[in-house]
Amino acid sequence: MNNNKNRREFVKLMAAAGLILYVPACSTESSKTKTRKKKQTPSNSDATEEIEVSLTSENVTYLRQSEDPFKELNQGFNLMVPKTPALIALCVNTQGVAEAIAMARKEGLKVAVKSGGHSFENFSSIEEGMQINLSLMNKVSWETSSRVKIEPSCTLREMYDALLPKNRILPAGSCGGVGIGGLTLGGGYGFFARQYGLTCDSLSSATFVDGMGKIHQTKTGDDLMWALKGGGNGNFGVVTEFTFDTHPAPDGFTRHRFKAYKLDPTRAKTLLQEYFKYTSRLPETCFAAFVLNYKTLVLLITNYGEPNETITEMIEVFSTLADDTSIGTKKDLAKSLENYYGIEYPIYFKNASAGYYDDYQTIESSIDEVLEIVFKKRGLIYQINTLGGNIDNAQFESESCYPHRKSPYLSELQYYWNEGDDPSNILLSFDKIQNILYRNGIRKQYRNYPSLEFQDWEQAYYGEHYEKLQVIKQEYDPENLFTHAQTIRMTSKTTK
């Protein structure tokens, strides 16, 4: 079941039945909206009582907490981090977003932006403020045979469904329920990134609404576009349309999988050493992932190009080292990708970046301590993904603020649990591992895998680009309308 699609259809039905009120952005004299009193911060239960609405706008719908489908729209992917805004602005187009921002400014509401809702720390919602919800903005339209315009809440499943029949792809991720908006603005990688770069590297232009409600058209080469490519997640405005240059889709996809069970640290280190030995030589059409779940290893190798000597050798080595081997054959790309779409309904989990690595030596000083923790915690996942290839492209680097292109590996930590379970013991292990890595100089982190526990997150996400991003924040969001725990901050002199 495609939960995102079902949610979207539910919202559309509500609107068609007249159960959702269309209200103005309070930018005209005919609008009746009272100004929020600033003396006290109201509770969620009465946060919007002072706002009067009228049936005047077809661009945006405002929903209070008691109104359907507020709860449905507000639900993020991670059930661990619930947030309840005072008001949801359900926008249907760029003008609706501009109107919603005008409303937020007038009423003194801070703003978060939700497209796919997959933010691991739920930065796409906000307590007390306004959630600008883009759920209905998911259209895909072709400008040329290779250039496509996509709205931000289009999921990756929907994107692939639109592009693959035309034999085109974007170097996007594999989780079907992720929205293209959040993925692109944080960088974005997947099976095709090593050949074509990050998702944001295929972005050629965008429609952007800033914190003052002004609409901008930006393109590659602009400072604003530079900031959006890796630094745009809810920091200083809303992208309402993305225009991408697509790439030829391969005619097939091959997957090889190896499993090893009941590992001890010695054997795990041997497998890691071999992993780094071969993945450093993989062709750009390949992607590899090392997934250690407690004492079980899953090693994934994918390839959509021709067979390669390195791949052949890697298969031979890991067929010997592993306990279970699955050698794949070339299969239809669309059907192959469906195997990786994953869970698309809300769940309880913690997922966080665990650092970028340059090679095996980068983590060798800390690997013993990391493995000791993982082997003691059933369900704790330590994963290392291959990057590199054309991600490390000088042109792409100059055109974006994504700062970690020269690191060929990205690791992450994951844990999943059921409602009612207590994850606190496992989550303490996240902190222990992150502190070990930090102590050993592994401090670069992926913005799309955020954690509130990161030390020096500004530099971890953005590196040397953070100060320039602060300048752009000041230019496009001078009132600091867009804010969450890890929003790019203006200097102390300008922050409101």
Strand-residue proportion: 15-25%
Kindly state the percentage of residues in helix.
Answer: 25-40%
Q: What is the CATH topology assignment of the largest domain? A: Vanillyl-alcohol Oxidase, Chain A, domain 3
Assign an overall shape. globular
* Rg of Cα set: 23 Å
Tally of separate helices: 15
How many domains, in number, for the residues? Answer: 3
Describe the protein's architecture and organization:
The protein has 496 residues and is an alpha+beta fold. It has three domains: 3-133, Uridine Diphospho-n-acetylenolpyruvylglucosamine Reductase, domain 2; 140-249 and 469-476, 2-Layer Sandwich (Uridine Diphospho-n-acetylenolpyruvylglucosamine Reductase, domain 3), CATH 3.30.465; 254-456, Vanillyl-alcohol Oxidase, Chain A, domain 3 (3-Layer(aba) Sandwich), CATH 3.40.462. Helix content is 30%, strand content 20%. The protein is built from 15 helices and 18 strands. The protein has helices at residues 3-16, 70-74, 94-107, 156-163, 180-185, 193-196, 223-231, 265-279, 309-321, 333-338, 360-374, 394-399, 424-439, 457-462, 466-476; strands at 60-63, 87-91, 111-114, 130-133, 140-142, 147-150, 168-169, 203-210, 215-219, 237-245, 247-248, 254-260, 286-293, 296-303, 324-326, 348-357, 381-386, 409-417. The strands form four sheets. The protein has a seven-stranded antiparallel sheet, covered by helices on one side. Strands 5-6-10-8-9 form a five-stranded antiparallel sheet. It has a four-stranded mixed sheet with strand order 1-2-4-3. The longest helix has 16 residues, at 424-439. It is globular and about 65 Å long. The chain starts with a helix and ends in a 20-residue tail after the last helix. Mean pLDDT is 90; it is low at 13-47.
